[in-house]
C-alpha cells in the first residue's frame, strides 16, 4: 500500500504543478509586441532556456517557456517583444 500511496501523491503533485503553471494560452495571449523582457518574465516566470546575440548594436534574445507539452517562444529585439509563438501538440487543427 505505501508504494501505491506514494505514486498517487506524486501524480497529484504533478497535476497541481501543471495546473498552476503560468505557461498557458491565457498568459500567452497577454504577451504583446513591444512588452519588455522584464514584463514577460513577470507574466510567465523565468524561461526554461534563453539565448542572446548582439550584432552591430542590435541585441536579440530567444526565450522558451515549457510546461508539459506546452511551449511558449518569445523573441526579443533590443529588450522588447518582436515575435511570439504558442505550441501545444494536442491543439493542432483546432
How does this model look, in words?
The structure is a single chain. The chain is of the alpha+beta class. Helices cover 34% and strands 35% of the residues. The protein contains 3 helices and 4 strands; from the N terminus they run H-H-H-E-E-E-E. The protein has helices at 2-19, 25-30, 37-44; strands spanning 49-55, 58-67, 70-77, 80-87. A hairpin with a 2-residue loop joins strand 2 (58-67) and strand 3. The N and C termini lie far apart (42 Å). The model has no long low-confidence stretch (mean pLDDT 87).
How would the blueprint of this fold be written?
Elements (H helix, E strand, L loop, with lengths): L1 H18 L5 H6 L6 H8 L4 E7 L2 E10 L2 E8 L2 E8 L7
Main attributes?
94 residues; alpha+beta; four-stranded antiparallel β-sheet; 3 helices; 35% strand
Secondary-structure element order, N to C: HHHEEEE
Helical content band: 25-40%
SS element count, helices:
3
Strand percentage, roughly? Answer: 35-45%
Query: How many angstroms does the end-to-end distance come to?
Result: 42 Å
Question: Average pLDDT value?
Answer: 87
Tell me the Rg in angstroms: 17 Å
Widest sheet, order of strands: 1-2-3-4
Low-confidence stretches: none
Biggest β-sheet description: 4 strands, antiparallel
Shape, per Cα inertia axes: elongated
- Helix/strand class: alpha+beta
DSSP, total strands: 4
Amino acid at each position: 500500500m505505501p508504494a501505491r500511496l506514494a505514486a498517487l501523491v506524486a501524480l497529484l503533485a504533478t497535476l497541481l504543478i501543471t495546473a498552476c503553471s503560468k505557461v498557458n494560452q491565457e498568459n500567452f495571449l497577454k504577451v504583446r509586441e513591444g512588452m519588455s523582457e522584464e514584463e514577460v518574465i513577470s507574466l510567465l516566470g523565468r524561461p526554461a532556456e534563453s539565448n542572446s546575440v548582439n550584432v552591430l548594436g542590435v541585441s536579440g534574445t530567444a526565450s522558451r517557456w515549457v510546461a508539459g507539452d506546452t511551449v511558449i517562444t518569445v523573441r526579443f529585439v533590443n529588450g522588447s517583444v518582436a515575435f511570439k509563438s504558442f505550441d501545444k501538440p494536442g491543439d493542432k487543427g483546432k
